């Protein structure tokens, strides 16, 4: 039964509207703490990062392939236009980068639990290129049997079923398809074109091969309405992908900003966006899908599930971010700089941060709340020798007042509506942690890049 009083508390106190929403999930991101690093000391830094991996036996591998056919309006990854020559150079650098990090000993005694190809559009690279990267990983590291290997994919790259079969043959066992919506008018605004029939054919081929499928969808796209979203959901019910991820449109792309400035009516009003988020989360729960806020098992998205449990991530490619429990670093965003350093046998790390004890505690809470079981206060005490209920006392008091967080069975976890609005809870935690340091600090999106911007039409 709909509890309007609880929903009003969330909407009136910390719901992030179209203009304010920033995608900080899945990780706790403090950009002001990252410091530039000189190429001359990168090798020594990697020794420190290797030490920070500690006793963790399992790690995750992320491969960033930032190229696409065009830049879609909703995109917050700012890909480069596909270019055969540039992609060939980039591919060679990925292979070389894997060699450099292997030589640094980062994978000694470690098992690769999951591999994820992100972008851009990884399938803008040929199956042979993806196969070569997978083979290089397997030659350099111990990959567990039946490891989850995912690639993101633009629907246009999967029109030919032979392409999908080729992905299966090289070892990819999960494909995440960026649909966002099926509404033809909205797709046109967003510079996309795909059909229900085309996506259904792709899902059928994946199912026949025994591959897992995910469809990425969005709420709050330009001109989107509750009615069009509900039609999208009806189509998804017909297509039946193995998993669905529903997220909000984060307005950081300069292309999107220009569209909204020319036609402000396309901006979804906050009241309607709130209803959209509630509607899509309620639908996700009814359909039995899991995403951030209520993961109970890894089958829907193994890579993300392990990430939320703080497995270290070693990322390859420009702008890619790596994590251990106590350190994080970014690769250079500029591809010419990235490639030049690799050609000189220098790991292309551009900046880094060492997480303080407080940062680690807030990150642990931030990540664990995205799993339904929540944060174990027992494990928190074992790790930090402090009581989580004391450390987060002020934060918990606020979130409990909004009825979106609770302590059950010695775990801090989200309530049902807290899980529905998990992105707002995460932003609230981020804002709270930043204010503990300085009232001047402001939240930045996890996807922050040199070309990102914000819309200001208030």
The CATH C-level name of the largest domain is Alpha Beta
**Number of extended strands:** 16
> What is the architecture of the largest domain at the second tier of CATH?
Alpha-Beta Horseshoe
CATH homologous superfamily classification of the largest domain: tm_1862 like domain
Major sheet characteristics: 7 strands, parallel
Strand content: 15-25%
CATH topology of the largest domain: pyruvate-formate lyase- activating enzyme
Q: Provide the residue-averaged pLDDT.
A: 94
Distance between the termini: 35 Å
Strand order of the largest sheet: 9-8-7-6-5-2-10
Q: Rg from C-alpha positions? A: 21 Å
Which structural category fits the helices and strands? Answer: alpha/beta
> Overall 3D geometry?
globular
Q: List low-confidence stretches.
A: none
Please tell me the total number of domains: 2
Q: If helices are DSSP runs of H or I spanning 4 or more residues, what is the number of helices?
A: 18
Helix content: 40-55%
Walk me through the topology.
Blueprint: H1 4-13, E1 35-36, H2 42-52, E2 58-64, E3 67-68, E4 80-81, H3 84-103, E5 111-118, H4 127-140, E6 142-153, H5 161-169, E7 174-180, H6 184-189, H7 196-209, E8 212-219, H8 226-239, E9 243-248, H9 254-262, H10 270-287, H11 302-308, E10 313-316, E11 321-323, E12 327-331, H12 335-343, E13 349-354, H13 357-368, E14 375-376, H14 377-384, H15 388-391, H16 393-401, E15 405-408, E16 411-414, H17 416-420, H18 422-437
Parallel strand pairs: 2-5, 2-10, 3-4, 5-6, 6-7, 7-8, 8-9
Antiparallel strand pairs: 1-13, 11-12, 12-13, 14-16, 15-16
Helix pairs in contact: 3-4, 3-12, 5-7, 8-10
